[in-house]
Amino acid sequence: MSKILWKKACQLNSSLLTIKRLFKKSPSYVQILSEGLTNYCYKVVFSNGNKYVWRFKIPAVKKAFLISQFQEFQVLSFIQSTLIAPKPIIVNSQGILVDWIEGDSLRVIKTSFNSVLKIIVKIHELNIDNIHIPRFNFIEKVDHYWSQIRNELKTHKYQKLYNHWRNIPNLPSINNTLCHFDLTTYNMVNTILGNKVIDWEYATISDPRLDLALSINAANEEVFKSVSYYCKLRKIVKTNDWIAGVLLWKPRAIMMVMLWYLLNYQIWNNLKHLSEAEKLKDYLIDYY
């Protein structure tokens, strides 16, 4: 990551000026972080060694994915005592500032998927009585994604898959939990205090079986083995019911992510995103 001196960085991106007043001294420099697909951000570094992450708002991204940085700030504030996420510093109309987490990405050290499942369990077991954010609505979300996609990208096959899977599976009711909705090794950091989770912009209150399906799909892991381990950690007796539930959410989760990649391609014109959407489309076509 190349360094950009603070004054030059503010000229390149004026949103950085909105955090300047928080500190007595200006930062020394920033570094562009380009890992995320929808959360372009800066690492902000001070001469005393303090480091933060500034994720600035991109209107097209906010509109396409209905991302609320104010909701993310609320979630991070709510879970701050758990020490599994970065400390939120400020949120405003220009973006969100959080502490930098020092450590190694789990995708680099190639840990087992069980490490991801252990963190998912911690998140799902949090008491959500005092967090007041909207509950996730699957149909509303995929309908919004679809409405944002240009007509020339809405091929017959994409349309067919969207129509087929835009429904909620008929499952036994369980308690909703806090869900990260993008929990993969890409968004986990190994620190001296244990594994921590970053990039909470999609976090919401929802069915934990959908959250599990999203993470299992992203990691290309086996549902039976992963859900069995998850249930063991949570001391859930009806493991088969949970496996069935995740299996029913699985194609719906894939369809939602497929539309997400199409939208990313539409915004950034990156063929890699279109390729990912095509792979998921082909998988779903074979699925049923």
In CATH, the architecture of the largest domain is Alpha-Beta Complex
Helix content: 40-55%
Strand order of the largest sheet: 1-2-3-4-6-5
The computed structural class is alpha+beta
Count of DSSP helices? 12
Q: Roughly what is the average pLDDT, rounded to an integer? A: 95
CATH topology of the largest domain: Aminoglycoside 3'-phosphotransferase, Chain: A, domain 2
Number of DSSP-assigned strands? 11
**Integer tally of domains:** 2
* Strand residues, percent: 15-25%
Shape: globular
Terminal CA distance: 44 Å
Describe this structure in words.
Helix content is 47%, strand content 16%. It is α+β, with helices and mostly antiparallel strands and 288 residues long. It folds into 2 domains: 3-67 and 89-99, no CATH class; 104-287, Aminoglycoside phosphotransferase (APH), C-terminal lobe (Aminoglycoside 3'-phosphotransferase, Chain: A, domain 2, Alpha-Beta Complex). Strands 1-2-3-4-6-5 form a 6-stranded antiparallel sheet. The longest helix has 30 residues, at 239-268. The model has no long low-confidence stretch (mean pLDDT 95). This is Thiamine kinase. It comes from Candidatus Photodesmus katoptron Akat1.
Distinctive features:
six-stranded antiparallel β-sheet, globular, 11 strands, alpha+beta, Aminoglycoside 3'-phosphotransferase, Chain: A, domain 2
Write the layout of secondary structure elements.
Layout: E1 3-5, H1 6-12, H2 17-20, E2 29-33, E3 41-45, E4 51-56, H3 59-65, H4 69-78, E5 88-92, E6 95-99, E7 104-105, H5 106-109, H6 113-124, H7 138-148, H8 156-165, E8 177-179, E9 188-191, E10 194-197, E11 204-206, H9 208-219, H10 223-234, H11 239-268, H12 271-287
Antiparallel strand pairs: 1-2, 2-3, 3-4, 4-6, 5-6, 7-9, 8-11, 9-10
Helix pairs in contact: 3-11, 6-9, 6-10, 7-11, 9-11, 10-11, 11-12
Organism: Candidatus Photodesmus katoptron Akat1
Protein name: Thiamine kinase
Pfam family, one: Choline_kinase
